[in-house]
Write a structure and sequence with these properties.
Rossmann fold, single chain, 418 residues, seven-stranded mixed sheet, 17 helices, 12 strands, 2 domains, three-stranded antiparallel sheet
Length: 418
Amino acid sequence: MYQLLNDLCVIEVSSFVASPTAGLYCAQMGAEVIRVDHKAGGLDYDRFMLTREGRSLSWENLNRAKKSVALDLRSGEGRELCVELAARTGQCITNLPEQSFLSHAAMQAKRTDDPEGLISVRIMGWHDGRQAMDFTVNAASGYPLMTGPEEWDPETAPPISQPLPAWDFITGAYSAFALMTALRHRDTTGQGSEMRVPLGDVAIGTLANSGTMAEMLYRGGDRERLGNAIWGAFGRDFQSKDGARFMVAALTPKQWKGLVDAFDVAQPIAELETELGVDFDGGDRPRFENRHRLFEIFQTAAQARDYAALEESMAAHGCTFERYRSHHEAAQDPVLVADNPLFGPSPANPSGFEYPAPRSFANIPSARVGDPAPAPYLGQHSEEVLAEKLGLSSGAIARLIDAGTVALSDENANYEDR
């Protein structure tokens, strides 16, 4: 964690992935991020996979370094407190619908001193108000019909959805960026902003930004499935003599030369160049268009050596490559995790389970990075936040607790209690 945003407080009213990710990235840079949930937990509080004690590992990791306030968001008084917190703080990230109790107008109405200074970042489904989630916008984007083995019949082959909710994480990151731009604009002009970030627009907009939309319209049809080959360049998975699978990529002249030398295939490639009348040193296009013949050469060479020898040779020649790992292998890999400064010691996680925790993805060499902070227990900071942000007395808070409007930490609760 860095303390670059330690003068910023953000109210987060959210669930699932995209919206909590936006708050997480702010918190990892030092912002005070206060997540407000229904007192029994938000829709993602018990999201699978759960530990034996009933703690969600997903929730625990997406809410590190945040504070937690638990309110009865089904009651009028609880909702009023939530709106008041967002209004007083001045910055809110949420994925609640605009027509909910937490509309931008409702928050503005509570800011009698500076209603125009409010900043809200609202993550939506589609721009027209339809519901969406990562896996449905991914289906609409066309990407699942581009994945799968090359030999599959395009008329009968099933779509292959990616297991990573990538659009959620991209949307979360973009929402954090949107918040920073709104803050910068307010610093300059004094004007706040109502920002809406539709998940679906992030997906279809990325399709356009990548050039893929233009490509499909230009070609008048869809791109063929490529298996694990890289579109438009040389790259694919290969298998060594001892059965290890690894991915290589060559997008630059240096990378291409490194692979040719590492695999010791200069002669058969020269012979193929003569046969086809092409120059594979001439760029991506000849390598991609003749990829199948090139793949045969490289796979033949790969099958002649064990992976350890190939790895040593590729590393010596500056190749871009990586061995395929399972998630479990990656989590235990010393280079990826144990020796990576991204990860710090396990904090006191609510689950009680100890494991490496990531710091901010951005590394600042000149600054000291703090250790990862734990996620809060649900309601852990209810009293503190209501007193500090709303100025409520201990008696007023006690009344709200007795009425069931405010809940305290569920540290000692078990799964059956929730």
